[in-house]
Design a protein that fits this description.
Blueprint (H helix, E strand, L loop, with lengths): L11 E7 L3 H16 L5 E8 L3 H11 L3 E3 L2 H6 L5 E4 L6 H10 L3 E5 L6 H16 L4 E4 L6 H11 L6 E9 L16 H4 L3 H17 L3 E9 L4 E3 L16 E3 L5 E8 L4 E7 L8 E8 L2 E6 L5 E6 L10 E4 L22 H16 L7 H20 L9
Parallel strand pairs: 1-2, 1-4, 2-3, 4-5, 5-6, 7-12
Antiparallel strand pairs: 7-13, 8-11, 9-10, 11-12, 13-14, 14-15, 15-16
Helix pairs in contact: 1-9, 4-5, 5-10, 8-10
Length: 398
């Protein structure tokens, strides 16, 4: 008896995850959930997860539903049951792993920022272009594009509801480094993280500015600052780091905060703030877009809502109105709950997985591509270059 379309089981897509900490757990949730929420042309299978600590990676495999655990990322890439490699490691290993996976014939998803330098990002984008000619795809994990409210905001901008854009302003503030006793982790070391708040948070808001506006940034002017320049070493960290600090301390080699302005290709202005030193701000990503015909506002702490002002309406009734982005016609909502039943942060990773699986099955290029990630990397490099030139000076007393 022939199966109906609803009964057919789609072909499998074996997923291999490299890195199992915070981002690895978030990506695991997305891969584990996406096939239950959406009808997919391929069925993701959690084939294997890799990490250096054998006990920890086995525990992560059990917790998150991965069928196997590896302690060498090369062994994971070599597995026949892995068709897509998901890179969730620190930035210093992104280029090596992603390029190796692409050259091995795998599809690749790589966490943001794409790399720690423009040169690495260029090599990754070139490898992705070569792989694309063989039918492989490569995507950067800028998950905030997959917040339904922000995807809807992009739709409104693309439809011309704001008219020509005038000003885009974005802030991304956290407070987890306010305590000077917070230890020196890899995120505070340039050789591992590439940069600090700039790459960690600034990459997100640079990508969102370009995504929502539908055009690239073409110029920036910036200031960076490191407020706490030495931090306690974690247990087991090499004693060599102590040379430049006090006993048991090491130098912070990345920025704590970044402030910069920019100009979009159309001439619209943009302003950015990224800080991990903002007391009380846990994960505060906020933005506003102003155009000739209206404005949009968004706050990640209210991620199911979009604020919209239509400036073409009569002034006596016009004003910002709240759009609850939970309707079936809103982006991604067809897979979830009835209107008014809100979604959360973790859903963005399921949406990311859905878009990537759909692109693989259709043979189309997913977004954001490695080329998009390279563009963000170039902006981050320009910010650092500008900050190095914008030296602090001592005012002259009258």
């Amino acid at each position: 008896m022939e199966q109906s379309d609803s009964e057919r089981v789609p072909p499998t897509l074996g997923i291999g995850l490299i890195g199992y900490a915070f981002m690895g757990a978030a990506h695991s949730q997305g891969w584990r959930t996406v096939g239950r929420a959406f009808d997919l042309p391929l069925r993701p299978v959690l084939a294997a997860v890799a990490g250096r600590d054998a006990g920890a990676v086995r525990a992560a495999a059990r917790r998150h539903g991965w069928a196997a655990a590896e302690t060498d990322w090369r062994a994971l890439i070599a597995r026949d049951d892995v068709h897509l490699v998901d890179v969730c490691t620190p930035g210093d290993s992104h280029a090596e792993i992603a390029v190796a996976a692409l050259e091995a014939g795998k599809h690749v998803l790589c966490e943001k920022p794409l790399a720690n330098s423009v040169a690495e990002a260029e090599a990754m984008a070139a490898a992705a272009a070569r792989a694309g000619e063989r039918g492989q795809v490569a995507m950067v994990g800028f998950n905030y594009r997959r917040v339904p409210a922000l995807a809807h905001a992009r739709r409104l901008v693309a439809e011309g509801r704001l008219g020509a854009l005038r000003h885009v302003r974005l802030t991304y503030l956290q407070d987890w480094l306010v305590d000077p006793g917070f230890p020196l982790t890899w995120r505070l070391e340039r050789e591992h993280a590439g940069s600090g708040a700039l790459g960690d948070l600034g990459a997100h808001i640079v990508d969102l500015a370009q995504y929502l506006a539908g055009e690239p940034l073409v110029g920036v002017s910036a200031q960076l600052e490191t407020f706490v320049r030495e931090r306690p070493l974690l247990a087991g960290v090499s004693a060599g780091l102590r040379a430049s600090g006090g006993p048991g301390h090491g130098p912070v080699t990345v920025d704590d905060a970044a402030v910069f302005t920019g100009r979009l290709a159309s001439g619209a202005l943009a302003t950015f703030e990224a800080s991990r030193m903002a007391p009380g701000r846990k994960n505060a990503l906020r933005l506003e877009i102003n155009g000739e015909r209206g404005s949009l506002g968004f706050d990640l702490e209210r991620l199911n809502e979009l604020s919209f002002h239509d400036h073409t309406e009569p002034a006596v009734t016009a004003g910002f109105r709240r759009i609850l982005v939970t309707e079936p016609g809103h982006p991604y909502l067809e897979g979830w709950w009835p209107p008014g039943h809100t979604l959360g942060y973790e859903h963005t990773f399921a949406h990311q997985a859905r878009d990537l699986v759909t692109a693989i099955a259709a043979g189309t290029a997913p977004a954001p591509s490695f080329a998009d990630g390279l563009q963000v990397q170039r902006v981050l490099a320009a910010v650092e270059e500008s900050a190095a030139k914008n030296a602090v000076y001592t005012p002259v007393s009258p």
